């Protein structure tokens, strides 16, 4: 008698049947923690803008009906698009939250998005990051090395206009 041992990966199909796969699904490689809500809202704002631009949705009230939210909420989400591009990028790349509440909320960004001057927005954003972000050492967050690179606790290091931006914050003791 011959015994063959092999790992198989089953995936449910639309009709409830199981399909055999050679490799595990990519969902098994998901990093721990969750994407911050403000990062998801920023991505949603970008998606909504594309839907409006392509004519898939006629206007924001139609978008609100489609998304099952109020018109003022759509406006709040769409106002994230008024942020400077580098701030939008940083929002999208915020580190995952492993436990507890998100350190940065959409409501905190409203006064920043209301500011027309991107330079002033960056100042307000850095103040929020200094005050609110308590980092967790991870592969996507260089804060663990920040103290070795001469950045003091709670300081923000900015590489300048080269597009090579890095916000490194370390926990502040109170």
Automatic annotation (TrEMBL):
Superkingdom of origin organism: Bacteria
Region Disordered: start-end pairs: 138-174
Biased composition range(s): Basic and acidic residues: 154-164
Protein name, per record: Uncharacterized protein
Organism of this sequence: Maioricimonas rarisocia
């Amino acid at each position: 008698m011959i015994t063959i041992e092999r790992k198989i990966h089953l995936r449910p199909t639309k009709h409830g049947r199981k399909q055999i796969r050679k490799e595990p699904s990519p969902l098994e490689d998901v990093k721990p923690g969750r994407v911050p809500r403000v990062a998801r809202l920023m991505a949603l704002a970008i998606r909504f803008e594309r839907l409006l631009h392509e004519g898939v949705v006629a206007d924001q009230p139609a978008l609100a009906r489609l998304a099952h939210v109020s018109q003022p909420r759509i406006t709040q989400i769409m106002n994230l698009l008024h942020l400077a591009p580098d701030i939008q990028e940083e929002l999208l790349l915020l580190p995952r939250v492993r436990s507890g509440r998100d350190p940065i909320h959409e409501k905190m960004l409203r006064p920043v998005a209301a500011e027309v001057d991107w330079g002033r927005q960056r100042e307000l954003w850095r103040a929020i990051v200094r005050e609110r972000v308590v980092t967790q050492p991870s592969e996507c967050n260089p804060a663990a090395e920040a103290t070795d690179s001469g950045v003091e606790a709670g300081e923000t290091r900015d590489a300048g206009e080269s597009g090579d931006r890095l916000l490194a914050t370390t926990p502040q003791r109170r």
